[in-house]
Amino acid sequence: MERHFNRPVCENAAILFNGSKPEKRDKVEAVAKGLQSYSWQVEIYPTLGPGHATELASNAVKDGKTVVFAAGGDGTLNETAMGLLDSDVALGLIPLGTVNILAGELGIKKNVRRTVDDAVNGKFRLMDVGVLNNRPFLTVSGIGYDGEVISKVQEPGKGKKAKGVAPYVLSAIRALPFYKGVAGELEVDGERIPLRFLQGWFQNTRRLAYFDGMRPSGQCDDGKIEATIFEGRNGGDLFQVLFALKNHGEKMMRFQATNYTLDLAKPLKGQIDGDPIQATDHVEVGNRCEALKILVPRREIAIFSRN
Description:
With about 300 residues, the protein is α+β, with helices and mostly antiparallel strands. It contains 9 helices and 16 strands. Helix 1 packs parallel to helix 5 (about 110-120) and helix 2 (about 50-60) packs across helix 3 (about 75-80).
């Protein structure tokens, strides 16, 4: 397939949203109504639990839908995208989550009219999809401190215990004084690097939650995954680097590569697109080039190499 497509006049679309959050339905219905005013066919499907969005998206491919919108945050996007990989059905975004990394990269706002306008006037693109231990990610996956923080707010496969940003901030503050680095070895496209590992982020896009500049040159269709690896003894070292209290070069390494392997002396928790995963002492990261068709606004978008 080509990297860039023109959009047909109208679409046969599905919108998936978290059925456990009925308060989101009004906005979902408003977007659906807006799309229908442009002669789009739209059906709304609530998800009933973990993994259901993937099932519904896969069914939408079989049913001949052309666009499947994920109404939610980056975790909902991830689940929906897993049902669309390597198909000709595009992923659409209706940002309703806490951070909405991918929507932020694409300039899609939490505004019904803007969301509708961006969709009906948009264009289709192909984007790469990262893979960590055989699990796809669209924006960022992490191993280490962020996995520890997120696991205190969410449980793998069970969803969030609380809403908003505040629980994550509180969890981060509580975890930092007790967090310790572990011995490990990182392999980057065949080169082995011994290290005292604190935290690793593997990114397919530029933003990293509230740290916007963590991947200043990355693009989601360049065939690469960028890694940001932090070394050190404990949470104090990590704090100094994250908030620029110390020279980044002493504690932080950056790579842009196609494959990574990380072996650790003990298992550490992790996250994929903001959802927690079980602790592991062996990490393999790769890239599936142009595996996802996505509907994006018709304007210049920095995370694509061609606009």
